Amino acid sequence: MEVTNAYHDDEKENYPKGYGSEINTILYGWLLKHTNNPYPSLNDKKILMQKTGLTKMQLKNWFCNMRRRKLKDTIRRTKKRSKF
Hints:
Residues 39-74 bind DNA. By secondary structure, the protein is mainly α.
Protein backbone atom coordinates (compact mmCIF):
# COMPACT_ATOMS: atom_id res chain seq x y z
CA MET A 1 0.00 0.00 0.00
CA GLU A 2 1.49 3.31 -1.09
CA VAL A 3 1.04 6.32 1.15
CA THR A 4 0.71 9.59 -0.70
CA ASN A 5 1.86 12.84 0.72
CA ALA A 6 -0.36 15.19 -1.29
CA TYR A 7 -1.16 17.36 1.70
CA HIS A 8 2.51 17.89 2.42
CA ASP A 9 3.20 18.77 -1.23
CA ASP A 10 0.37 21.33 -1.26
CA GLU A 11 1.69 22.76 1.98
CA LYS A 12 5.13 23.28 0.41
CA GLU A 13 3.66 25.16 -2.56
CA ASN A 14 1.72 27.55 -0.32
CA TYR A 15 4.53 28.15 2.14
CA PRO A 16 5.55 31.82 2.09
CA LYS A 17 8.96 32.23 0.49
CA GLY A 18 9.54 35.88 1.29
CA TYR A 19 8.03 38.97 -0.19
CA GLY A 20 8.67 38.31 -3.85
CA SER A 21 11.24 39.58 -6.28
CA GLU A 22 9.65 42.98 -6.96
CA ILE A 23 9.55 43.96 -3.29
CA ASN A 24 13.01 42.55 -2.62
CA THR A 25 14.38 44.47 -5.63
CA ILE A 26 12.99 47.75 -4.30
CA LEU A 27 14.25 47.20 -0.77
CA TYR A 28 17.63 45.76 -1.73
CA GLY A 29 18.14 48.61 -4.20
CA TRP A 30 17.56 51.12 -1.42
CA LEU A 31 19.94 49.21 0.85
CA LEU A 32 22.73 49.16 -1.75
CA LYS A 33 22.42 52.91 -2.29
CA HIS A 34 22.71 53.52 1.45
CA THR A 35 25.44 51.10 2.56
CA ASN A 36 27.13 53.83 4.61
CA ASN A 37 23.95 54.36 6.64
CA PRO A 38 21.58 51.42 6.04
CA TYR A 39 18.84 52.81 8.30
CA PRO A 40 15.91 54.38 6.43
CA SER A 41 14.58 57.67 7.77
CA LEU A 42 10.90 58.03 8.64
CA ASN A 43 10.31 59.61 5.25
CA ASP A 44 12.20 56.80 3.50
CA LYS A 45 10.13 54.24 5.41
CA LYS A 46 6.88 55.91 4.34
CA ILE A 47 7.98 55.88 0.70
CA LEU A 48 9.13 52.25 0.89
CA MET A 49 5.88 51.25 2.60
CA GLN A 50 3.90 52.85 -0.23
CA LYS A 51 6.02 51.24 -2.94
CA THR A 52 6.00 47.75 -1.40
CA GLY A 53 2.74 47.56 0.53
CA LEU A 54 4.60 46.31 3.60
CA THR A 55 3.74 47.41 7.12
CA LYS A 56 6.18 49.39 9.25
CA MET A 57 6.99 46.26 11.28
CA GLN A 58 7.57 44.13 8.17
CA LEU A 59 9.87 46.81 6.78
CA LYS A 60 11.76 47.04 10.07
CA ASN A 61 12.23 43.27 10.21
CA TRP A 62 13.36 43.09 6.57
CA PHE A 63 16.04 45.72 7.13
CA CYS A 64 17.19 44.12 10.40
CA ASN A 65 17.52 40.75 8.70
CA MET A 66 19.27 42.10 5.63
CA ARG A 67 21.75 44.16 7.62
CA ARG A 68 22.60 41.08 9.62
CA ARG A 69 22.63 38.53 6.79
CA LYS A 70 23.52 40.24 3.54
CA LEU A 71 25.00 43.67 4.06
CA LYS A 72 28.08 42.43 5.90
CA ASP A 73 28.80 39.98 3.06
CA THR A 74 28.23 42.65 0.40
CA ILE A 75 30.59 45.10 2.09
CA ARG A 76 33.19 42.39 2.59
CA ARG A 77 33.06 41.44 -1.12
CA THR A 78 33.25 45.08 -2.19
CA LYS A 79 36.34 45.65 -0.06
CA LYS A 80 38.02 42.56 -1.51
CA ARG A 81 37.36 43.78 -5.07
CA SER A 82 38.69 47.26 -4.36
CA LYS A 83 42.03 45.88 -3.13
CA PHE A 84 42.93 44.67 -6.63
